[in-house]
From TrEMBL:
Keywords: Cell membrane, Membrane, Protein transport, Translocation, Transmembrane, Transmembrane helix, Transport. The chain crosses the membrane at residues 7-25, 54-76. It is found in: Cell membrane. The gene is secG. The keyword Protein transport applies. It is a multi-pass membrane protein. InterPro entries: SecG. This is Protein-export membrane protein SecG. Coiled coil: none annotated. Belongs to the SecG family. It holds the Pfam family SecG. It comes from the Bacteria.
Amino acid sequence: MNVIVNVVLAVQMLTALGMIGLILIQHGKGADMGAAFGSGSSGSLFGASGSANFLSRTTAVLAAVFFVATLALAYFGNARPASSGSVLENPAAAVPAGAPSLSASDAAVAPAVPASGAAQIPTK
């Protein structure tokens, strides 16, 4: 199942990058007005109006694939065993043997209640 999640995540990222690229390539609605004054958009790669149909359809397909990938990731993210419980209910992890631990003298030095007001300002 981890492989499926990775594949869906890769598909989602590729479609997101594809949508970003296609959206940046497209002309806005106001760009057609400039063509009336001789901006020369009729000599483009896709012809006078062919790019709008191709780019908008491709963007729509990529958006649909992105939406389906997002729903699949949400489904796989919530498909966990029901017996896991809360994080707060799990026992604390054991401290490794070489890790420093608090001694009784360290606990006596640490304040029980956090400081408030001007005592929170760090000093040099």
